[in-house]
Target: Probable membrane transporter protein
Amino acid sequence: MEYLKLLLLFGVGTMAGFINVMAGGGSSLTLPALIFVGLDGAMANGTNRIALTLQGIFAVLSFHKRGIHQYQRSLQLSLLTLPGAIIGALLAVNISDAWFQRILSIVLIGIVISMFFPSKKQAQQTTAEGRRTWMIYPVMFGIGLYGGFIQVGVGFMFMAALYHILKLDLVYVNMHKVFIILVYMIPTLCVFLVTGNLNWPLGLCLAAGNSLGGWWGAHFAVKGGERVIRYVLAVAILIMAAKLLGLF
Model:
């Protein structure tokens, strides 16, 4: 039975890594999957972060190799998230399992809805207006709080904040995003470690699948592929949300 769990999580991790490259939102699969193999909400939440931490390390190294980095600014933005992220992680390990699953199911449904809103992408970089840049402080704290608590979909939030408030180029938005998530993931992972909410074998298995899926996704180029992935992901997420709500 333990081998079946490892095989399942490796498969889900592979799918999540692939989806992260093609469309984003892979954690919306991995966190429910960890719950379905028998982990409680807090343990699943912590274990998922093992894979995310390793994924973040490789993502930052990848940007560095391509010469895309602004470490000082990335660190400044990361520090804004730390208080919220730690508070969120502490909330996550103290909330009841039933409530965590209810909240997760609502978040999953919200992610599915957001996937089908049109997004406007612009390649040029503009200068942020001084009167709006102050908004980044409370926004980063809030996103950090959410990320520390549940993590699912947090990448979309960081990208929206960095793009719309700071008016950064989308390439640098993505670079800052992966750096910020890696930085706050370390103290939140420590919270789950100290409270005994990490399952290392399952987390490392998930991480291995993520790596394979990410490599596969990076080499997969089919016209219209992202749209197909979004529809498949939406159906999978809705099934998981319904299961978490006890509908079947």
